[in-house]
Amino acid sequence: MKEISIRAFKARMKTSGYSASHILPHGSYLVNLGNPDEKKREQSYECFLDDLKRCEELGLHLYNFHPGSTVGVATKDESLSLIAGCINRAHKETEQVVIVLENMAGSGNVIGSTFAELGGIITQVEDKSRVGVCLDTCHMFAAVRLPDLVNVTEYLTNTSRRAMTSGRMKAGMAEFERDVGLQYLRGMHLNDSKGTLGSKKDRHQNIGLGELGLATFAHVLSDPRTRDLPLILETPAYDEPGTSASRLGKEGMDVWRKEVEVLNRFGNGVHGEGEEAKMYDWTEEIREVVQAASRKHDAKGKSVKGVEAGGRKRKAGKRKRGAKDAEEEEDGGDDHCESCIEEG
């Protein structure tokens, strides 16, 4: 990295009031450290290591990535060991960055859809002070096994749309505590889900407009165990065309601004009389901004395929191409990340 870029990044962090411990960069979706093909795994490792070194140059403390896939060749246990081996190797070639494993939605041969798999990697990591987990709410909802609703996924998804009891919340963290350990929770990705419970589909939706509902995020944000963690939105923004730098502070960020504004209201908890009415009103606030952004996006000739105003899914017509291609295009760049790993 150029020194001028490093200085500019650190200056902007200071200006914006960001702490390095609250920034959680995301690795390439193409990296697959669980690939049993040594040559391909080495290519992934070089990309992985380059990212880690960039983080250290920028003074960042955390680095999030998708663990990988068996690609249908290795066993899960074999891939878990390969991933852990790459992490151990990377720790020796870097100084301080913490490697954060993300839980996955469970499609195909992807690793990390169960906490036991994440725990199986961490168990084999030598320096456990430099490994952690990022929980993605959409992935958790998609990956849940239907008989296992009384676990951490139910805690986070509120599938019944009712307020949860404190007993359920405690039961909710039991699986994560047992298989991973709360001390390894280093961040969260806050995403609603287009896919239904247990669908194994990694399809992100705007906060409150998907299957999880706004009450899910009220519980997450008011839980003391999530305090001081980086909480990252990966929801559709319907943003303006152009580079990130050209859009900064301009049009195109309205959806994320509204979602963050609503999420910040949950810091002190939302309980008691009128709670359901507030949830409804705040959901509608987000829906209105999404509708406006979607209409503007469409008007500029950048059609949001498969989505009506308000984040509702349109009925799909006949597909003229392969089902996988059409499904991935429908949901945009960030929402089909698991399919990339399958081929890496």
From TrEMBL:
<dbReference type="GO" id="GO:0003906">
    <property type="term" value="F:DNA-(apurinic or apyrimidinic site) endonuclease activity"/>
</dbReference>
<dbReference type="GO" id="GO:0006284">
    <property type="term" value="P:base-excision repair"/>
</dbReference>
<feature type="compositionally biased region" description="Basic and acidic residues">
    <location>
        <begin position="334"/>
        <end position="344"/>
    </location>
</feature>
<dbReference type="GO" id="GO:0003677">
    <property type="term" value="F:DNA binding"/>
</dbReference>
<comment type="similarity">
    <text>Belongs to the AP endonuclease 2 family.</text>
</comment>
<protein>
    <recommendedName>
        <fullName>Apurinic-apyrimidinic endonuclease 1</fullName>
    </recommendedName>
</protein>
<feature type="region of interest" description="Disordered">
    <location>
        <begin position="293"/>
        <end position="344"/>
    </location>
</feature>
<feature type="domain" description="Xylose isomerase-like TIM barrel">
    <location>
        <begin position="3"/>
        <end position="259"/>
    </location>
</feature>
<keyword id="KW-0378">Hydrolase</keyword>
<dbReference type="InterPro" id="IPR013022">
    <property type="entry name" value="Xyl_isomerase-like_TIM-brl"/>
</dbReference>
<keyword id="KW-0479">Metal-binding</keyword>
<feature type="compositionally biased region" description="Basic residues">
    <location>
        <begin position="312"/>
        <end position="322"/>
    </location>
</feature>
<dbReference type="InterPro" id="IPR018246">
    <property type="entry name" value="AP_endonuc_F2_Zn_BS"/>
</dbReference>
<dbReference type="GO" id="GO:0008081">
    <property type="term" value="F:phosphoric diester hydrolase activity"/>
</dbReference>
<dbReference type="GO" id="GO:0005634">
    <property type="term" value="C:nucleus"/>
</dbReference>
<keyword id="KW-0234">DNA repair</keyword>
<dbReference type="GO" id="GO:0008270">
    <property type="term" value="F:zinc ion binding"/>
</dbReference>
<keyword id="KW-0227">DNA damage</keyword>
<dbReference type="InterPro" id="IPR001719">
    <property type="entry name" value="AP_endonuc_2"/>
</dbReference>
<dbReference type="Pfam" id="PF01261">
    <property type="entry name" value="AP_endonuc_2"/>
</dbReference>
<dbReference type="InterPro" id="IPR036237">
    <property type="entry name" value="Xyl_isomerase-like_sf"/>
</dbReference>
<keyword id="KW-0862">Zinc</keyword>
<dbReference type="GO" id="GO:0005739">
    <property type="term" value="C:mitochondrion"/>
</dbReference>
